[in-house]
């Protein structure tokens, strides 16, 4: 079975994000970039399926600038066999990314596509779902357990109030939730070996996909600064303030 894993380059989760002075987006100059954490979980799951003998090949794909090759090399160091960068300097919305991923799916014919449930920069939580709609594949989102059984994959999903298990016919799309697994770190020898693994670069044009945007970002603003709290001297004072100032009781 071939698995395709989608990997996004995002601002590292430890970075304190700053909004650009002109409110057009967030500052990316000299900011540490990494693989989206939910994509790390997707790579880990694919590698585990290969280690179990379920998968025979893992291909990672990223849509982004030249520098996204760094995140693809990380994926290769973690156990992915080869990588594809769909290179674009533009910031694309989810539908454009999903259309590009669909073109890669058409070419690669994977049995399973694993994506993160969400990219931590844009918090869209929609690329996997859009890819499922475009390909017509079954989807199991927010996966906390993935088990391939014959021509089906059983996905346990984290939903409000519990867990739901669904059986999907292959080919299928899975998006990863936080509890699916704990990603490994790449070892130094594997980082060295990854430099020699194949990484193809293609353009959206070569895939025949128009990436014209249907969404325009009007403004990006930092959240309002929280005002300082106060200390109350007694429970009676707290109740009085909740009643008369905050008016919440
Ligand atoms: P989103 O819908 O933007 O929150 O992203 C959900 C998942 O879709 C991510 O975790 C990735 O697996 C995939 N994805 C989104 N954007 C990209 C991209 N530019 N390149 C590769 N994968 C992406």
From TrEMBL:
UniProt keyword annotations, A-Z:
Electron transport, Transport
Residue ranges constituting the Electron transfer flavoprotein alpha/beta-subunit N-terminal domain according to the UniProt record = 23-211
The record's annotation in InterPro entries points to: ET-Flavoprotein_bsu_CS, ETF_a/b_N, ETF_b, ETF_beta_N
One Pfam family linked to the record: ETF
List all membrane-crossing ranges: none
PANTHER family to which the protein is assigned, alphabetical: ELECTRON TRANSFER FLAVOPROTEIN BETA-SUBUNIT (PTHR21294), ELECTRON TRANSFER FLAVOPROTEIN SUBUNIT BETA (PTHR21294:SF8)
Give the family per the record.
Answer: Belongs to the ETF beta-subunit/FixA family.
The name of this protein is Electron transfer flavoprotein subunit beta
* Originating organism: Geopseudomonas aromaticivorans
């Amino acid at each position: 079975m071939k698995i395709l894993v989608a990997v996004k380059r995002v601002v590292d989760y430890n970075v304190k994000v700053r909004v650009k002075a002109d409110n057009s987006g967030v500052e990316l100059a000299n900011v540490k970039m990494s693989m989206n954490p939910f994509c790390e979980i997707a790579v880990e799951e694919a590698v585990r399926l290969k280690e179990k003998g379920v998968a025979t090949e893992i291909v990672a794909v990223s849509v982004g600038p030249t520098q996204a090759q760094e995140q693809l090399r990380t994926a290769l160091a973690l156990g992915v066999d080869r990588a594809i960068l769909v290179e674009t300097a533009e910031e694309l919305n989810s539908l454009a990314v999903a259309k590009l991923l669909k073109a890669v799916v058409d070419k690669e014919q994977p049995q399973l596509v694993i994506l993160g449930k969400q990219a931590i920069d844009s918090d869209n939580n929609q690329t996997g779902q859009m890819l499922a709609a475009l390909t017509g594949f079954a989807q199991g989102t927010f996966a906390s357990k993935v088990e391939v059984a014959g021509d089906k994959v059983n996905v346990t999903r984290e939903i409000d109030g519990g867990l739901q298990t669904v059986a999907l016919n292959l080919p299928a799309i899975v998006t990863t939730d936080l509890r699916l697994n704990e990603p490994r770190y790449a070892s130094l020898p594997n980082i060295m070996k990854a430099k020699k693994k194949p990484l193809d670069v293609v353009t959206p044009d070569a895939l025949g996909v128009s990436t014209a945007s249907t969404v325009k970002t009007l403004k990006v603003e930092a959240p309002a600064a929280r005002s300082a709290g106060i200390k109350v001297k007694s429970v009676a004072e707290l109740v009085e303030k909740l009643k008369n100032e905050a008016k919440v009781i």
